[in-house]
Structures are given as structure tokens and as C-alpha cells.
């Protein structure tokens, strides 16, 4: 696999979107080398470590893209990681190295009903998916946030019902998100699923959806963006082991 393209971008401004989400707008002279149409694609933020050590990378989503800028949304945690610490202290003129973009992961639009689900880490990608759904789309979007102050106004088709799940304490077993999805009326016809959340929630949700519906792989995207108690490297290893187990079953 080819290494992602690296470019240095500049902080243009920062904006508090909600209680626990901060938007950093990036631009600068290298922004023109970023391909067009990358909203919802992932990028790697690169953080230098000690001499002789490999840089640390953290994965984020392009929320908006304009001709000379991109927006990247950061969830602000009490136990902040290197990326959210950087974002909280970022000021106009600061620079950051990014890698990518990687491929966009959009919900399959060729469906009768749609189900989108995720926690706040997936909210940027869910927002892009909702905005790109056809105007007559029907279904549900369930978004888990830590506080009612984190509810956002999102562009979405009238036939997609938004459900905001308030959960201040992430559950390693993933029950809050699972229980909300399971409580919804059964969707009909060809169903398309897009979900991304914490690792435990992902596994619980994936198992429920596979038991409840017959959904072809082309219409089924369920992934984890993080794992409680693990760094991004630890989460990546857990995802690899989970994928191997899934393939073996």
C-alpha cells in the first residue's frame, strides 16, 4: 500500500461547535494539493516524538472542504489525547503535518431504508452522510453524545428521523447505543447501514444487525473509531484481531 501523501497545513481559526466539540480550520499554501471532494475522508495528524522515535499519528475526518480550507472536528475529553490537546491549544498560524486523505466511507445510497448510528467521534462522518442522502431517503440516524449541549443542527432528509442519545459515560459493552437501535421500528426493503463508534459498541451493534436483518456486504459498513482504555495503536490491534475472528466464523 502506498504511503499517504504528507503536507503541512496552517491553522486558520478555531471554533467551539458544541460543549465537547472543537472545530479547527486548516489551510495555507499547501491546501491546493489536497484533492477536491474529500468531505468524510480521513486524514492522519502527525505529531513528532523524541529523536529516533517514529512520529505519532491520529486519525480524523474532514468535516467540510472549501477551495482554500478544510474543517476538522475534535472531541474534547477530560482525559485528552495528543490530538485533542493540540486542538485545544491551536492558534492561527500554527502548523500541523497531515497525511492522506484516505478513501471516503459513505453509506450505499441504493436502498429503500437507511440506518446510521455512531457516537460523537463519528459525528463528522455521519453529518456528511446525512447531507448526501437522497431527498426522499427514509430511516433513522442515532447519535450518542455525552451531553444535551452537544446536540447539533444537521442537514438531513425529512424522512430520516434523528435520535440523540445522551450518555455521559461510555459503556465497554456498548449497551446504550445497541438498546436505542434495537428499540426502533423494523426497517423494510433493502436496508443500507453505516455505523461507527467505540469498539464494544461496534461489536454489539454489528451482532444485533446481522441477527435482525439480511444485509449484503455492499450495504453494511460497521466500524470502530476508538476503544475504551486504549491508544490508537492499541485500538488498531484490537480491530485487526476482531477482523480475523470475523473472517474465521
What does this structure look like?
The structure is a single chain. With 249 residues, the chain is α/β, with parallel strands linked by helices. It contains 5 helices and 11 strands; from the N terminus they run βββββαββαββαβαβα. It is globular, with a radius of gyration of 18 Å. The model has no long low-confidence stretch (mean pLDDT 94).
Report strand order across the widest sheet: 1-2-5-4-3-6
Helix tally equals 5
- Percent strand: 25-35%
Tell me the distance between the termini: 27 Å
The average pLDDT is 94
In helices, the fraction of residues equals: 10-25%
Family: Belongs to the SIP oxidoreductase family.
Protein name: Siderophore-interacting protein
InterPro entries: FAD-bd_FR_type (IPR017927), FNR_nucleotide-bd (IPR039261), Riboflavin_synthase-like_b-brl (IPR017938), SIP_FAD-bd (IPR013113), SIP_fam (IPR039374), SIP_rossman_dom (IPR007037)
